[in-house]
Design goal:
The complex is a heterodimer. Chain A contains seven helices and no strands. Chain A is mainly alpha-helical. By secondary structure, chain B is mostly helical. Chain B is built from ten helices and no strands. The two termini of chain B are about 25 Å apart. The chains are: A mainly alpha, B mainly alpha. Chains A and B meet through helix 5 and helix 6 of A and helix 7, helix 8, helix 9 and helix 10 of B.
Chain lengths: ~240, ~220
């Protein structure tokens, strides 16, 4: 059973170069057209509301990427396979990127709508803490080279603690402050046209995230191999 | 259990012999109180609402400095590998370290509170406040001690440890400050802050105790 799952996963993964780039490209194009042209103009907020089509999917992508970091870190501690470390580092970079995008688009939207770039609202604050947590993770991991197993294990432990801390952070910050617009997507209060474009954007950006994580993880893996080769070469020259 | 006691005894003895490390953390705490006093003009009656924040930030900073040393000496002397070779569960080693750090930091914190009582002419120390501070200390020390295992290996650890630990400790800081607000009879909102403090402490104790053996595995 396990072998079947493993083989299927491998088979799917083998298609990544053929499938992901064109699909992501087409979806991103569709998302752009959808968000800028097709989606109706919001009556109260105006054009700036179109940022939602990047902002909300970025949030989902950020959490998705951090979940990948968590899973890869558990995998690393469990199996001691350094490939998991490459995946974790790759996913953390992508997650930090999308969290940053979420914060920036939020600030640009916030100025005309709330009258301020930054508000100490619960969600914004917890997103900022999330951003700091994973920046710290990347910083800690970057202090030792790719082959350092001890540093990889340490960073994995940190990533696990950080991921488990997220619910507590969200809870505490929510008790501390609240002002963010409550999600209205679920209740169906969003017009049909907007819902379709938002759905499309989510698909596009989540797939983009998957592709970026694959790219980063493989780059990190190649980087680790290059470092190993260089070290081996140095040793031989030393002999 | 005896392993915990042995590590605790060893660490307390070392703390006593290497007083300079702990004294510098305590002095740092005292000086930061003074710095806050100058920076925010902490005089008169309006100081009371600011005190919970001042106290907890001082605790967290002094705690980070103190805990960052937890494994440095061990690694520098090469005794950490010897400790790891001991035929006892590694969680016991961790528990001994945390206990020693907690005891030392509690002493520093009580001293800071006494100093604040004198400097700002406020009645601070009450059983409720001591309880909150103790719970919070166990919470942040357990997490910072786990994180300081890296510390021993990296040159930039003094800077890195707070960068790693403080974002994780935001819930503890918020809950600690608000619980202290309540203990000092200041407005603290309706949320159950003490409960949050207890939950965070339990979470960080359990998570750190489970992850410590994995973090130090060779």
């Amino acid at each position: 059973m396990t072998r079947l799952v493993l083989q299927t996963t491998k088979w799917i993964y083998g298609w990544r170069w053929l499938v992901l780039p064109p699909v992501v490209g087409a979806l991103m194009l569709a998302m752009l057209v959808g968000a800028v042209v097709v989606a109706p103009r919001e009556v109260v907020e105006g054009e700036v509301q179109r940022l939602m089509y990047i902002h909300v999917p970025s949030a989902i992508s950020g959490y998705f990427a951090f979940a990948v970091v968590f899973a890869a870190s558990v995998g690393l501690l469990w199996t001691r396979d350094m490939r998991f470390d490459a995946v974790a580092r790759g996913a953390a970079t992508v997650g930090v990127l999308f969290t940053f995008m979420m914060l920036t688009t939020g600030a640009i939207w916030g100025k005309p709508i709330w009258g301020t770039y930054w508000a100490w609202d619960a969600r914004i604050t917890s997103t900022l803490i999330l951003f700091l947590l994973y920046t710290a993770y990347l910083l800690a991991r970057s202090l030792a080279d790719e082959l350092d197993e001890q540093a990889a294990r340490y960073s994995a432990v940190y990533a696990i603690v950080a991921f488990l801390d997220i619910p507590i952070i969200n809870m505490s910050v929510r008790w501390w402050r609240t002002l963010h617009p409550q999600p209205i997507v679920v209740e169906g209060a969003l017009p049909m046209g907007m819902q379709i474009v938002l759905g499309l954007s989510m698909l596009a950006i989540v797939l983009l995230t998957v592709w970026l994580i694959v790219l980063r993880a493989e780059t990190e893996g190649i980087g680790a191999r290059a470092t190993a080769l260089r070290a081996a070469l140095d040793r031989r020259e030393g002999e | 259990m005896s392993a915990v006691a042995a590590v605790l005894e060893k660490d307390l003895r070392l703390l006593w012999r290497h007083r300079s490390g702990w004294l510098s953390a305590a002095t740092f705490a005292a000086i930061s109180l003074l710095v806050y006093a100058f920076a925010f003009d902490l005089v008169g009656d309006e100081v009371r609402p600011l005190l919970p924040g001042v106290l907890w930030v001082t605790f967290l900073f002094a705690g980070t400095i103190a805990c960052s040393r937890a494994f440095t000496d061990e690694v520098e002397q090469g005794t950490f590998d010897a400790l790891l070779l001991a035929p006892v569960p590694r969680t016991a080693l961790y528990a001994g370290k945390v206990l020693a750090n907690c005891l030392a930091l509690l002493a520093v914190e009580v001293a800071v509170m006494l100093l604040a009582t004198i400097l700002f002419n406020q009645t601070l120390i009450s059983p409720v406040l001591l309880l909150d501070v103790t719970v919070g200390t166990v919470g942040y020390v357990s997490l910072t001690t786990l994180l300081s295992t890296l510390g021993a290996r990296v040159r930039a650890r003094e800077v890195l440890l707070p960068v790693l630990s403080l974002p994780l400790l935001v819930p503890l800081l918020i809950a600690g400050v608000r619980a202290t607000d309540a203990a000092l009879e200041l407005p603290a909102g309706s949320a159950p802050w003490t409960l949050l403090l207890v939950v965070f402490t339990l979470w960080s104790l359990i998570a750190s105790a489970l992850l410590f053996p994995l973090a130090v595995e060779r």
